[in-house]
Amino acid sequence: MTITVKKVSLKRTASDQIYLPAILKGLVTTARHFFKNTLTKGMGDVDTIRYGEPDVNVEDYYPQRFRGVHRLMHRDDGSVRCVACMCCSTVCPARCIYIEAEDRGGDEEKAPKSFVIDELKCVVCGFCVEACPCDAIRMDTKAHMHPTETRADAVLGKLDLMKRGTQSVAHQGGVGADFRTAAPKADPRFEHDPR
Amino acid sequence: MHASFFATLLSVLRRGMGPWSALLLPWVLTLGACAKDPAPEQVSVRAEPGSLIFHPDTEPLPIEVVNHGKRPVPVQGFQITGNDWSSFSIVEPINGQMLVPGRPLRFSVRVDAETFRGGTLPSAVQGETRELGPDEFREGEAVLAFRVGEETHEVPLTFEDPSWVTATLLPGLLKVVLLVLGFIMPLASLLLWQERKQSAMMQDRVGPNMARISLGGLTIRLWGLLHIATDGLKMFFKEDFIPRRAHRAMYTLAPIMALVPALVVFAIVPFGDALCYERLLDVLAQADVDQCAAGRGGTPLQIAHIDVGLLFYFAIASLATWGATLAGWASYNKWAILGALRASAQMISYEVAIGLTIVGALLVYGTLEPHALVHAQLDSAWGILLQPVAFVLFFTAAIAETKRAPFDLPEGESEIVGYFIEYSGMRFGLFFLSEFIEIVFVSALVTTLFLGGWALPFEMFGASGFAAPWVAQLFFTLVGLIIGATGVAVWRASKHARFVGATMLGVGVLHVCVALFSLMTGWGSEVPHVVVVLVGMLTWGVKVFVLCWLQLLIRWTLPRFRYDQLMSLGWKGLLPLSLANIALTAIVIYALSAAGTIDPEPTDAEGEAAAAQLGATP
Question: Which residues form the domain of A25?
Fold first, then answer.
């Protein structure tokens, strides 16, 4: 195999020296962008997410696996799904989850007496969700952690986390409907995938 | 144009334009059915101009009898009747001659102004009279009548001595309001927003879109058009800062010096042909409009009719750079003064190029007066065809004069921030605004010099309307289709733009309806004067706007020059090229006039007499 060397002439040609052909080429390019973005559906090539605009639900633009603030899911009877197995707090690289277990009564599993996540420490890696054996902790709220006035306000307790949660349709033990089957709606104004 | 385009077209028609388009079609059909079939006229004789207006210092006025028909007819029986018939007389009468189509007969009418001088007039108060002074003239009127076959044609003759107020002041104010307040200031403010929005669209961004007004649940956003207002408000309420060691008077004067010349130069720009006050609804010939342009019975649509119009432009436009220079010097800031030095150096380099490029156009058209320059272009060809090199050079140099990228060295926001670095609030706003007014002015000047001013291309639209009905049909169909298709595209583009898109489609449909109307009635070659004037101003405005758009496109496409590159482009590029353009133009004109292909330069009567004497001497 031979190596070919392409020699580029650095000498300026006449069309380089009068600038105009290159200028026209540039103008045509920018004008094409202008007309495409002005006159085609969904503003052409503009990929900007209209974050914060009043009629735009920004959650529509988030990917399915976007990791937001944690939440704790409920059982059918409204009690917490968590069985205090400590998987999440064990796997957490930031050590921001603190669980204290208690007896749920009867033959059932344990339950967390307190379940505390320090959102300021959390690195939003999502390992806790991966580790959870019973679909109790999720990060699919699509909400960002709101700024707080004190550090203590950023530490979420069990009730805070359960307030964001809903009843999980998954069967205890991992059999049942996929909670991610319902895909997020894309903004109908955008033909292309907004992501 | 794929299927979904038509699907959208249908949906726009159904949801946006439905009732309107349903109303339009029967309207057109009714109009077409009611209008009577245009009979092919064999004889159609007109006097051009259709009325003569004399002032005390008016020379004998030429008038032409033109046959627009098909066969020759004799014209005879010329006589002047009316109250003041004795004051008017016909020079070089043409009584009894045959009038051949395409060969107008020309004669002149003279007035004896002395007969109107002095005397008594009935006063405004009933029963009283007023004695006129020796320098005052009373008004007078007569009728010039002549017969063509069986028909009698009448040309009103009017003598008047308008006061300075009615002849100069009121039309002047009208034109200032029309042009400056009605066009330049709105367009300049629009450009403030358009600059940001257009650059965003060119760079695949969204651009300013958040300014909005909420009126009882109805939110108006208009793609951020209201940012014009918010920007203005912001500038008014910012701190008005003056550096401690700045020269206060000069510092205050500088923004005014930048803004005022930019506005004043518009005085010479013709934005239409002429407006005849009293004959707005008549169909006029070019001769009528020329009479109005001379100030008799109308006014030219140009604020100041100066014979040395373009020299006036050079004189005033150079003053605008004083604003930048003064601002830099008075700010007591080293960056500002660097910007000021750059501005003045750039002005000198590019002013020379501008002046020399215009000389080529002057050689071709033989006038410095913008209004006459446009007429000369309509008589021959647009400047961009006869002087393409001058067009490119002039546009380049003029963009450099506006001190914007790629020639924005005086501003140089990445290195010295520029001559207005110390300015804030509305003082800065004035610099900013004057920059945009200069953009509008450059566009207006290029339109006047190279793009035929207010005229539509191909001589399709004259003083009395379209050249022929089929031209009108073609024009309205094409324009209607373009506007309508753009409207549909805008409708599709965004939910917020639906109202605008539907409106544009409605305007497009209206154009097509006018074309249909013309097709059925043969309308198009005879348009009322007021419509002609409006179309002229609209054409001029569209040309100016497109050139403004082009300037913004250039500004956001090209990278900046380095300072030495800027200077070498001006002195080593534009200057020699413009000199070469002058030389080439002169040689071509000399060769063509020597070969008899074109008329030599028009000479005045004295020059002709002198030339005749010279020719007779040997």
Answer: 14-41
pLDDT value for B610: 46
- Interchain proximity A30–B556, CB inside 8 Å: yes
Could you report the predicted ipTM of this complex, rounded to two decimals?
A: 0.81
CATH number at residue A87: 3.30.70.3270
Q: d(Cα B403, Cα B7) in Å, to the nearest integer?
A: 47
Strand ranges, E, within B425-531 = 461-462, 465-466
Using an 8 Å CB-CB cutoff, list chain B residues near A23.
554, 557-558
Q: Which tens digit of pLDDT belongs to each residue from B278-327?
A: 888 888 888 888 888 888 888 888 888 888 888 998 888 888 888 889 99
Place of tokens 């033959």: A107
Q: Above 80 in pLDDT, residue B452?
A: yes
CB pair distance less than 8 Å for A39 and B486: yes
- What is the rounded CA–CA span in Å between residue B270 and residue B369? 10
> What pTM, to 2 d.p., does this model score?
0.81
Query: Number of residue pairs across A and B with CB atoms under 8 Å?
Result: 58
As for how many domains chain A has, the answer is 2
Residues forming beta bridges with residue A103, ordered by sequence position? A110
Amino acid letter, residue B506: G
Query: For residue B197, what are the CA distances in angstroms to B204, B581, B598?
Result: 10, 38, 48
Q: Is residue A138 one of the residues assigned to a domain? A: yes
Mean pLDDT of B456-462: 84
Q: pLDDT tens digits, residue range B6-27?
A: 676 666 666 655 445 555 665 6
The reply to whether B489 touches chain A by the CB within 8 Å rule is yes
Q: Of B198, B203, B558, which has the smallest distance from its Cβ to A23's Cβ?
A: B558
Residue contact A30–B493, C-beta within 8 A: no
Domain contains A191:
no
| One domain, residues A36 and A105 | no
- Using the beta-carbon criterion (under 8 Å), do B210 and A53 form an inter-chain contact? yes
Contact A115, A164 (CB under 8 A): no
- The highest-confidence range among B318-327, B388-397, B404-413, B488-497, by mean pLDDT, is B388-397
- Would you tell me which CATH number, out of the four given (3.40.309.10, 2.60.40.10, 2.40.440.10, 2.40.70.10), belongs to the domain B45-161? 2.60.40.10
Cβ-based contacts of A40 with chain B (< 8 Å): 489, 492-493
